[in-house]
Amino acid sequence: MKIKWVLTQESFDRLLAWLDPDREKASTAFLEISGKLTIFFARRGCPVAEELTDETMDRVSRRVEDIAPTYEGAPARYFYGVSQKVYWEWLEREKRWKRFIRMFDLRLLFYQTPDADESDLDCLDDCLQKLDAESRDELLLYYRFDGRGKIKTRKKMADDLGITPGALTTRVYRLRARLQPCIANCLKMREEERGV
Q1: DSSP 3
Q2: Is residue 9 helix, strand or coil?
Q3: From CA 79, how far away is CA 37, in angstroms rounded?
Q4: Helix 49-67 × helix 23-43 angle, to 10°
Q5: Which residue has better confidence, 147 or 119?
């Protein structure tokens, strides 16, 4: 079982020391890099830009002890390199999710999806059932329509919730993030059962 790495005060102190020996200058550099990373992700359409910035910072913090002694150049460049990797990983997760949602949309519309793997759809159904009814309904309504129907539905949802459309996108993204581990686990178990 993979253990999730947690940022400690010690690793954060090492990161700041790498940015600059002067603690105040290091703190300023950290905030500046963090702000630029958030803008980088946001400009690329990531509704969770701040979470991806945190992920980038955590990854660099995890590696700083190994890279700091031999790294040449401005530390900020290393952060930006890691942010590219984090961004591409996020894009890949988005693509996989969108394929899943397209299959699910077809199932909602036609109750059968001839070209979809039924076990994938079963995993999605099972995991959706584990959400509370309000979250499940919100997620399904968000993805229910295309074109103008999609725009009108999402605007109405945001208005009904008293939030901006951007906040709605973030809210739905977080609901999806709750579903994804369940789906991934279910698919893995089914592959193991089939001996894949």
Answers
A1: P
A2: helix
A3: 8
A4: 130
A5: 147
